[in-house]
Amino acid sequence: MKFRAKIVDTAxxxxxxxxxxxxxxxAKTCTLRIxxxxxxxxxxxxxxxxxVSMWCELEQEDFFSEFQMEGVSAENNEIYLxxxxxxLSRALKTAQNARTLKIKLTNKHFPCLTVSIELQLSVxxxxxxxxxxxxxxxxxxxxxxxxxxxxxxxxxVSIYLPVLKTMKSVVEKMKNISNHLIIEANLxxxxxxxxxxxxxxxxxxFKDLGNPPLASKNASxxxxxxxxxxxxxxxxxxxxxxxxxQVNPTKATCNIVKDxxxxxxxxxxxxxxxxxxxxLS
Amino acid sequence: xxxxxxxxxxxxxxxxxxxxxxxxxxxxWLDPSEKGLAxxxxxxxxxxxxxxxFSPVFFQHYQWSTSVKMNDTDMxxxxxxxxxxxxxxxxFRCLNSLEKNVEKCKIFTRSDxxxxxxxxxxxxxxxKIHNVCFQESQPLQVIFQxxxxxxxxxxxxxxxxxxxxxxxxxxxxxxxxxTPLKVCIKSSNEExxxxxxSVYSEMFVGPDExxxxxxxxxxxxxxxxxxxxxxxxxxxxxxxxxxxHFDFPGKPMALSxxxxxxxxxxxxxxxxxxxxRASSLQTLCLSQKQKRSEPIHxxxxxxxxxxxxxxxxxxxxxxxxYSNETPTNISTLENCGSPLxxxxxxxxxxxPKSNGDISEVPESSVSDTEEVPxxxxxxxxxxxFFGAVSSDQQEPFSLPFQSLATASDSEEDMNNGSxxxx
Lengths: 281, 422
Hints:
The structure holds 2 protein chains of 2 kinds. By secondary structure, chain A is α+β, with helices and mostly antiparallel strands.
């Protein structure tokens, strides 16, 4: 197994750093899947994660000037590594004004992702090299099946999200009242966030959001476009998702499968993020 | 009696010193003398010591007069003022605004009232007065020959700060490795650390980045990160380069800043370079307590404070860092213990403060060598040489680490008469 990659462009480096901080906010531990064309950050929907799952994908060509990998075997030319997301994001943050950044898979007593940064010194023209060895766990092939790209469910309603920052501040305040949030939307561009307790009900209405064309074939032409599809979810999971979005995405869609699952599909420039929150049982 | 006056910008520097010292300990000794106003701080584990001396020239006005009591011996009494960081730190919190608003700051004390009065004369005629009570307690001094260290590096604080940004705050310790050709700063490699989850970082600094570079011996020392950060912030604030003096692992290192107006020394213990770092400093401190608690309780001076409970909650991280094995030295534990015991035996409180008088702390004249509790871990000790002044200093040593394993033969030591009651 081999992996070496290099970033020389500052904008790419900053973007990659932002992606890794976002992942660090979304998942404490995650899987990094390395394949010849892509890098994926994966969180599988295990009970340990509260049923939440995440799939983040980026094309390696968009970031790395050099990229070489050799997977487990020729037929299975992929590498799956488990790591603590924050370790990677912190290491990358130290590369703020770096000339180059190199990442490679090494084995120093145990497998590591070694991040090697060449920093421009503020005082002289010379540079300094900083290395971080991030411990990782290699995931054996038999567990790979749990870490595949999730199938997009047939959504009852698909709607574009409002400005995430606004959504986040609303949800943050609602969290103080109840942990149980109802998210509902219809094909008329309306999205509601509702909490209900014995004493009080609070609903925030977002209008004129627009709906993407429904992909599924059995899309109901007969479905009333005003009818809301709702899911009851744990508000903290939604908040964690929203907290991870520091920058407003290029595109953000929410797909609701009634009473089953909420699927968020975001695009941050060229990095796609999919986040699934299951309904409360 | 102390009386000094500072301007707004001087207050900022003064406040920065206090902030740096607050990283070491929750207590601050205010120690004025004719040499100037010294601030001292020692951490509970006795593994870090900070000292900042502001010369009289630093202040707009500085006046120190001692009240000489009628004693058997004529001695210059110290102020013996110990302040809690909790009381004094908030006063010097927003230094930037203090610098802007304060036109004049007066600090004065009256030992008879055990109070320090800090007056800020601010703009717009506003006057803020803080009265801080202090407890009488003799300050500790550390005797450390920094000029005798084999390695000395002087560097602008900016460079080190850039380096330290790399290390995550979860790491407590950092290792400095030097050879005549290069300097490497890296995360320390403790076996007991959770290696599978911690990031190992390292960076190199070339000799040309230092203002002064003298490496006598190739060495690697490991020390506490938090205290270093405090010193760096202070040195950046006064824009003075910081000098690092060190030797072999286990011997304390000194971080010092020498300016025309002030002098700062921070002595930090370093981790000894040996595989079986069994002891935690707590066992060490317990033995200190055992040795010293006797005199405290029997002395029953007014200086025995009830502040002891605070020590429990303070920084009791197992500083396994600070165990030491330097077989060539006699365990300096005894240095701390016995001379003190000897003095106490003589019932002396009037021993004059021995500034740098090493003969007061005989390194090898330890009669109690055999009495050191058997467990080898207790002989290990971070090399701090204390110019112990009087038994009044006992309180800092009375560390009530409650549930520590006692060395099995320590009780015998207690009873064999080497520590007489008085």
